[in-house]
Backbone:
């Protein structure tokens, strides 16, 4: 099937490199993945890592998104400014050729300049939002992209008009693995969002309004005073952190009843955030982030005339 490929779509993050060979109709016909994330590569080794992964595929154009366009990536792709449309993002794509002559393109991230909060940046998630807009061009609302650095993007009239980053996943990792709280929690086999502690933690920060820096100490207190099971206490911490994110978004005016919400991420994270929004009293639809990466890269490739002419007909 590889000989039918017309475009390679690449999602290249800090820890993983993932490539998809797309047919003339834009459908994935082959996938390949490696641990050659940007964080694992030395300068000047990106091309070799990419070609190793796709060596059995035809020499067709490749469009890439993610940390591949960062200062530590293959080539830096400067940020496009908000409000950003698929068209303006496509116009800022950088193009070059590999040593073997393969046409390559890297999608830029996007940025916000703000006197109120000193600016913000996205690199990678913008492609997923473009994928959502390709499917829902009239979407008007908030796209939540949970992860190490969770993003809340405002989308209106076909553009990403604003966004804000929350270090939710990173904070959870630091608190549960490196702070003194690590002695009070433990990971088990159950999904944290299904445990009673998750709902209680979310209630404390979203509904009861317990200040976040005070709330996280209660993880320790629950163990000392109530001998709470360590796995449920980890779920409680997760609820506190995700709840802190939702409460902050609500209090800054990003979240209100009736506003459309889409959660874009891995299935486990999407389930956790879906449960969190449900407990907080908001309706949100979860979408698969991997599917939207492909849709976004395909849409940008077509917008930037990177797809072969016969594909666009």
Residues:
């Amino acid at each position: 099937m590889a000989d039918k490929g017309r475009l390679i779509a690449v999602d290249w993050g800090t820890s993983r490199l993932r490539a998809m060979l797309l047919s003339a109709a834009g459908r994935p016909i082959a996938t390949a993945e490696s641990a050659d994330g940007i964080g694992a590569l030395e300068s000047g080794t990106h091309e070799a890592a990419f070609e190793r992964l796709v060596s059995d595929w035809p020499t067709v154009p490749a469009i890439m998104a993610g940390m591949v366009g960062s200062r530590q990536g293959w080539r830096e792709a400067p940020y496009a400014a908000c409000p950003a449309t698929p068209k303006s993002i496509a116009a800022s794509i950088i193009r070059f050729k590999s040593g073997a002559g393969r046409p390559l393109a890297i999608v830029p991230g996007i940025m916000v300049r703000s006197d109120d909060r000193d600016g913000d940046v996205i690199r990678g998630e913008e492609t997923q939002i473009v994928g959502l807009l390709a499917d829902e061009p009239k979407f008007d609302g908030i796209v939540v992209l949970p992860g190490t650095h969770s993003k809340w993007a405002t989308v209106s009239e076909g553009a990403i008009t604003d966004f804000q980053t929350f270090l939710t996943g990173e904070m959870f990792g630091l608190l549960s693995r490196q702070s003194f709280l690590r002695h009070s929690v433990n990971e088990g086999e159950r999904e944290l969002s299904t445990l009673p502690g998750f709902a209680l933690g979310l209630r404390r920060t979203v509904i009861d309004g317990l200040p976040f820096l005070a709330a996280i100490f209660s993880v320790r207190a629950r163990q000392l005073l109530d001998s709470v099971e360590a796995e449920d206490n980890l779920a409680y911490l997760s609820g506190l952190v995700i709840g802190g994110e939702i409460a902050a978004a609500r209090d800054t005016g990003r979240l209100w009843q009736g506003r459309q919400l889409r959660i874009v991420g891995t299935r486990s994270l999407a389930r956790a955030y879906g449960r969190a929004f449900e407990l907080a009293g908001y309706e949100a639809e979860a979408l698969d982030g991997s599917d939207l990466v492909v849709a976004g890269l395909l849409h940008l490739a077509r917008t930037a005339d990177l797809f072969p002419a016969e594909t666009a007909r």
